[in-house]
Amino acid sequence: MSFIPFLVLIVLISCCVAVFGNATLDGASQVSVLTAAAVSVLVGHFTKRLSWENLEKEISEKVSSCASAIIILLLIGAIGGTWMVSGIVPTMIYYGMQIIRPEIFLVSSSILCALVSLMIGSSWTTVATIGLALMGIGKAHGFDDGWIAGSIITGAYFGDKLSPLSDTTVLASSVSGTPLFTHIRYMLYTTVPSFSISLTIFLIAGFTMNVSGSGNVAEFMEGLDRTFVISPWLLVVPVLTGVMIARRWPSMVVLFLAILLAVVVSLLVQTSLVHTISGHENEGMIASYKGMMRVCYGNTQIETGVPMLNELVHTSGMGGMMPTIWLIICAQTFGGTLTATGQLEDFMKIVLRWARGTATLVASTVGTAFFCNVALADQYLSIMLSSQMFKETYFKRGYESRLLSRSCEDGATVTSVLIPWNTCGLTQSTVLGVATITYLPYCFFNILSPIISIVVAAIGWKIFKK
Fold first, then answer.
1. What Å distances lie between residue 315 and 15, 338, 340, CA to CA?
2. Is the dihedral of CA 243, 245, 248, 251 positive or negative?
3. What is the 3-class SS of 42-103, one letter each residue?
4. Per-position DSSP letters for 287-346, written without gaps between them
5. In the chain, how long is the greatest CA-to-CA distance?
6. Hey, is 448 helix, strand or coil?
7. Paired strand residues for 300
């Protein structure tokens, strides 16, 4: 009975993807998730006689827990618009197209994103900044959107997973009772092989693909030079942003200041473009104010003279994040109903009975973390729930806590971006402008990590007991 809501959700989401395609997030997915939540309430009412007050309380707690993520999403929407109009991202694209050769673009983008994410500890920030620039470079070289997004996400999540500044890494180590750097060192046994295989695939693909983007590169460079003021001085903003992150400033503060810096640069350097966006080119301060407000909250259509480049430099600001936020609230509602009705706990009891040996225990942990990503649509909840559920089992069987923390990360952190209605999948697909289903087959690191985690456990490599 407890599996019925999950079955309903899977069927409805599958129908939405088949019928609506890339437009699934416009509302169909949200309705599907709320319908599954209603089914969960209905099943819970007839099987456990729940009070409506407890149900409302659980849903409210789940929704309120993602309030900070919603604010960060709005700030990411604004940073996408301001960094584009200010010329920061166009400058990265302009110089990147001259430096990165097409043959090594995919592997280079993964390594670059990995280094940035490792230093700042945030896959979301990495994708929203350097990732956007790499999307432009990849498109100019003629690569498919799925390959480009896959290489970016692979690098961003590799760095996020191993960074001591990453919130998911700190969370996984803390809830399992594992010292942070012990947790990070232990993850190397599954993370490095997964990333190495991914880089090999990207390297082979780069040399074997028939990409004919040389004409696009010249056309893109001409369009960017004609539309924006391109200058290496604009890169001071991302450098300052990196410094703020390295000093461990709160993410909301860093994002807000990065937006503020980009706004100042836009007004000083890209003045005519801002006035054009406002629709009042000859009104001075009013045009500047109206233009920057539109860049932060709404759609900006910038005419470059190159249709393909127009799509790339188009931004949607905070307003573009609203379907994502809408779905997050619906997903948290579904998670609240599952928790309040005990359906998630009922389902997990079956999993615990199946976990007998080392391999099956790790596979159960990884599978549970992935299942929580699907059901609860949040990587933080997935890490916490899977760790809490298996912590006592690992302790009783004599396993060190680092095996639990690694299994939770391998199952939760890296797979969250592969699920269309998960907060990570929603965010990255919205920021990059590439549907989750499109980039999913090319996120080799995210697919391989949970598999290699189970394989390592099966062969007993570096599996210790107390």
1. 29, 36, 39
2. positive
3. HHHHHHHCCCHHHHHHHHHHHHHHCHHHHHHHHHHHHHHHHHHHCCHHHHHHHHHHHHCCHH
4. HHHHHHHHHHHS-B----S-HHHHHHH-B-TGGGGHHHHHHHHHHHHHHHHHHHHTHHHH
5. 74
6. helix
7. 315
For the cut 90, the answer to whether the pLDDT of residue 352 exceeds it is: no
Q: Which residues contact 351 (CB under 8 A, 6 or more apart)?
A: 364, 367, 368
**The token pair that represents 343 in the structure block:** 């359906």
Q: What is the pLDDT of residue 283?
A: 66
CA–CA distance, 270 with 295 (Å, rounded to integer): 12
* Per-residue burial over 125-152, b = 16 or more CB atoms within 10 Å of its CB, e = otherwise: bbbbbbbbbbbbbbbbbbbbbbbbbbbb
Q: What is the pLDDT of residues 278-326, one digit of tens each?
A: 877 666 788 888 889 988 988 888 888 877 677 767 778 888 878 767 8
Length reported for the chain: 466
Between CA 188 and CA 205 the distance in angstroms is 25
Do 175 and 388 contact (CB within 8 A), yes or no? yes
C-beta of residue 450 within 8 angstroms of C-beta of residue 410: yes
Contact residues for 431 (Cβ-Cβ < 8 A; gap 6+): 76, 80, 127, 128, 131, 132
For residue range 295-306, list pLDDT tens digits in order.
898 888 888 887
- Answer whether 79's CB lies under 8 Å from 262's CB: yes
Terminal alpha carbon distance of the chain = 39
The pair of structure tokens assigned to 451 is: 């598999």
- Write the pLDDT tens digit of every residue in 95-123: 876 777 788 889 988 988 888 787 666 78
The dihedral formed by the CA atoms of 140, 143, 145 and 148, expressed in degrees to the nearest 10 = -90
**Contacting residues for 62 by C-beta, under 8 A, at least 6 apart:** 332, 333, 335, 336, 339, 381
